[in-house]
Amino acid sequence: MRPGESLESLSREQLLELLSIYSKNWQAMDGVWFQSVERKYGMDEAMYHDVEAWKRFTVTEARRIKKFLGLGEHPGLEGLEQALKFRFYANLSHYEIQRQGNVLLYRVLECRVQQARSGKGMGLHPCKPAGEVEYAGFARTIDDRISCQCVSCYPDVSDSSCACAWRFTLE
To answer: Tens digit of pLDDT for each residue in 113-143?
Structure first.
């Protein structure tokens, strides 16, 4: 059987459901390895490896999405907005995107990671360091003229109406 052959017989609805399952599986794997390192070596060591993993993964994800969408070398904030909608994470979390001139604001309204940790009685994930690498790297890969600034992200929460917020600026 060739790769993907079994997918060809699925309906659109089945493919969308499978995409949701794949997204959840991706996030579960991300959480499982992180919690394994966290339990054995502590949060600082787990965060170090999380940041290192995101440095590479976010570029890979952005390149593949950029190619899939047929975005040019400098698609600007329009291209970034389009690409953000096709990340694995976009299938899992409730978010909103706001545009104001040469600024794009991306706000995660409900975060499955923080909800899962809270549900297990674990402390919140201090995701800001990994988020800074993740979102900035994704944006730069889509268009190297885009910079990213954290507006609010645990543990530095300045906007309690969302899980995290990121400001992208086209320079």
So the answer is: 899 889 999 988 999 999 999 999 999 999 9
Do the strands 146-153 and 103-110 form a parallel or antiparallel pair, or are they unpaired?
unpaired
Provide the sign of the torsion angle of the four alpha carbons 40, 60, 86, 1, taken in this order. negative
CA distance 22 to 38: 24
Query: What is the spatial distance between Cα 151 and Cα 164, in angstroms, rounded to a whole number?
Result: 7
Express each pLDDT in 36-79 by its tens digit.
999 999 999 999 999 999 999 999 999 999 999 999 999 999 99
CA distance to 29, 92, 126, 163, per residue, from 35 (Å)? 10, 19, 13, 20
- Cα separation, 87 vs 6, whole angstroms: 23
Q: How far apart are CA 95 and CA 17, in angstroms?
A: 20
pTM assigned to the model = 0.92
Token readout for 43 is: 């949060």
Three-class SS state of 4: coil
Structure tokens at 108: 């995660």
Instruction: Pull the structure tokens for residue 95.
Output: 């978010």
* 3-class SS of residue 71: coil
Beta-strand runs (E) in the chain = 94-100, 103-110, 146-153, 164-170
Pair 46, 53: CB distance under 8 Å: no
